[in-house]
Design goal:
single chain, Nucleotide_cyclase, TIM Barrel, 3 domains, GGDEF domain-containing protein, EAL_dom, 567 residues, six-stranded mixed beta sheet, CBS-domain, alpha/beta, Alpha-Beta Plaits, 23 strands, eight-stranded mixed β-barrel
């Protein structure tokens, strides 16, 4: 097998943060001279040297990467069977890290399929051992093959990589779209980041952004190359896909997105040096990496002690006599105390930190730290400002211009959140009886006034009930989602209020669907089940309210007179 390994070369493909457009890591991909890496591993398996060959490939990947001085985390691949094998087989990986001067925390070990052939207990034990030794972990091939979701919850990996077959199907397959939504929701609870691999088209990229997936790799963004492009950006590609809705019209599933971005959504890998580093060492790093905006000086526990801003530092050391004065002395003399922010903080909290900073430092990078104050990376203020601005524009575009209430997409996300969370909740569909006759008799301006009045009543009612969300999905159609303890008092208050158009009294119809955990699977299904309930409510005299449940034909009439006579 060693002779076969001599013919293996490596290409490196960047992983991008879709919020910032920057490279956050690089994956090493083995490229045998003949055949594929799978062919090589199969030959090793037949010869009885699978684990040894697998580890040897990872070691060669680390050595090849060391030739390029990446400055970002490196992803290497190991099979699940290798990790579940004897611990001493992985020892060469530790040796090559010492040889190249890399720390285990610089490596993300991507666990590859098949998982079913690795004894579960031994696999989990091996993964925990790697984590205890400082490695970061990733599960590869999730969504296809035999990757068990229960392993995700047990191991809580740093990253979960979507199989490329899932990514390919996203723009046109609602089921795959829903799968990624559910995986995103699960990863929020495990603290894992979803990475999409194999992104080849703008439609796939648009679908991923719409889902809130923030890390991706693929030929659309950057092809794998012998020399890694750690300074690459994808700003041009992102701007071409600035309207996710435009290229995902075929999607039928709702989209789930959090209440707002976190600082980790904008994370860049930090360029670090020991806090004892000299100015000359910092200058060497900045000179070799023109895209680095600063250096974080860390202590032995990887906790930030100082930050060196690129512009201020270069101004000091490149001026007259600057090199002679500072080169051999500690860089901390030209550094600042770091501006720290916790990994769980929101982007708005970051801007609050910036607002209270000294004017000279408002554009400095902020250092993101974990619960033990260890450096996780840096965030650039410009990225956060741009991201929040885009979010606000998106939110404004999603509001109905007449009532300023959220539209269909926002409401769908809220319903989907409750479905995925297994909550017991109710969805209501409210509209005006005979609204067309209102417009035809007193004019569309009076009709608009009526819609605004109903919108205000819904908004004010929701203000008294924190668990109630209301939306205006067009025309005279309004939606309400609430918990069971709030839907009745909220709805009763709205229906009790008198509404009129130019003095002409109008009545309302409300259909409510009670959704127990597991009784519905999507916003689309809720919409379909509400339709016959709405028709029932419209058939009643006066202001009406009916209530139904998924899987039952029984309808409770809470308000409204008997059925109107026909004929």
């Amino acid at each position: 097998m060693p002779a076969l390994l001599d013919d293996v070369r490596f290409a490196f493909q960047p992983l991008f943060n879709l919020h910032t457009g920057g490279v956050v890591a690089v994956e090493a991909l083995a490229r045998p001279h003949d055949g594929s890496v799978q062919d090589l591993l199969q030959a090793a398996f037949r010869a009885g040297y699978l684990a040894n060959t697998d580890v040897a490939l990872a070691c060669r990947a680390v050595r090849h990467a060391a030739d390029h001085g990446l400055g970002v985390p490196l992803h290497v691949n190991l099979l699940a069977m290798t990790i579940a094998d004897r611990p001493e087989l992985v020892a060469p990986l530790y040796a090559v890290l010492r040889e190249t001067g890399r720390d285990p925390s610089d490596l993300v070990v991507e666990v590859g399929t098949p998982y079913s052939r690795a004894p579960r207990r031994l696999l989990v034990k091996g993964l925990r051992r790697l984590r205890e030794d400082g490695f970061r972990l990733g599960l590869d091939g999730v969504g296809e093959g035999d990757s068990p979701l229960s392993l995700l919850t047990e191991v809580r990996p740093d990253v979960v990589k979507l199989d490329r077959e899932v990514v390919v199907a996203l723009p046109a397959d609602p089921a795959r779209f829903a799968l990624v939504q559910a995986l995103q929701h699960l990863c929020e609870h495990t603290g894992s980041l979803v990475v999409a691999e194999g992104v080849e088209t703008e439609a796939q990229l648009a679908a991923l952004r719409r889902l809130g997936v923030r890390l991706a790799q693929g030929n659309l963004l950057a092809a794998a190359q012998r020399r890694p492009r750690v300074d690459a950006t994808i700003a041009a590609v992102l701007s071409e896909v600035s309207d996710p809705e435009a290229t995902t019209k075929t999607m039928t599933g709702p989209v789930r997105r959090g209440a707002g971005p976190r600082v980790t959504d904008f994370l860049h890998p930090a360029t670090t040096l020991p806090d004892s580093a000299t100015s000359e060492e910092v200058l060497e790093v900045l000179g070799s990496r023109p895209t680095v905006t600063g250096v974080v000086l860390v202590d032995a526990e990887d906790r930030p002690s100082w930050t060196v801003d690129r512009n201020r530092f270069l101004l000091a050391v490149t001026g007259p006599f600057g090199h002679a004065l500072h080169a051999k002395r500690e860089a901390a003399r030209l550094a600042d105390r770091p501006k720290l922010i916790g990994a769980e903080s929101s982007a708005l909290e970051l801007l609050d930190v910036v607002a209270h900073a000294h004017r000279e430092r408002t554009n400095d990078d902020l250092v993101v730290v974990d619960a033990d104050d260890r450096c996780l990376g840096v965030v650039r203020v410009a990225d956060v400002v741009r991201g929040i601005a885009e979010l606000k524009v998106e939110q404004a575009a999603a509001l109905n211009p007449l009532t300023r209430l959220p539209g269909t997409d926002s409401f769908a996300r809220e319903v989907d959140r409750r479905v995925l969370g297994g909550e017991l909740f109710a969805v209501g569909w409210l509209d005006v009886d005979g609204f067309k006759r209102v417009n035809d008799s007193v004019g569309f301006a009076a009709g608009d006034d009526l819609i605004r009045a109903i919108g205000r009543a819904l908004t004010e009612g929701a203000g008294s009930h924190p668990g109630v969300h209301v939306g205006h999905v067009g025309g005279d159609d309004f939606l309400v989602v609430a918990g069971l303890d709030e839907i009745v008092p909220f709805s009763a208050a709205v229906l009790d209020a008198p509404f009129d158009a130019e003095g002409h009294a109008v009545t309302l119809s409300l259909a409510t669907l009670i959704c127990a955990a597991g009784s519905v699977v999507s916003y689309r299904e809720v919409s379909r089940l509400l339709a016959p309930l709405k028709e029932h409510a419209k058939s009643l005299r006066g202001t009406s309210w009916v209530l139904g449940r998924p899987g039952s034909d029984h309808v409770d009439v809470l308000r409204g007179g008997p059925h109107l006579a026909v004929g």
